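BUG: 3D viewer hangs when loading the predicted structure for this chain

Environment: internal workstation, default settings.
Expected: structure renders.
Actual: progress bar stalls at 90%.

Input used:
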Amino acid sequence: MQSKIIKRTDNKLTLEVEIMLDPNSMLNSEEQIQLALNDAGLLATDTALSQFDTDGSAIELEGKKYTSKGKKKKV
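Structure tokens produced before the viewer hung:
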């Protein structure tokens, strides 16, 4: 199971999703489909959110200055 971005334009994302189907169990196949689509959804959501990220500069609102710690890898 693997999801990857094949193409990205201004406001369109094309994903490729690979799903391993179990020829002996419909239940296992359904679970694999669910996992693969969730993975694709996470990838698409991460990409969508990144277009709203700021450059890290401070934001001033009502006289208060707000700063970012920058992008940090989550574990």
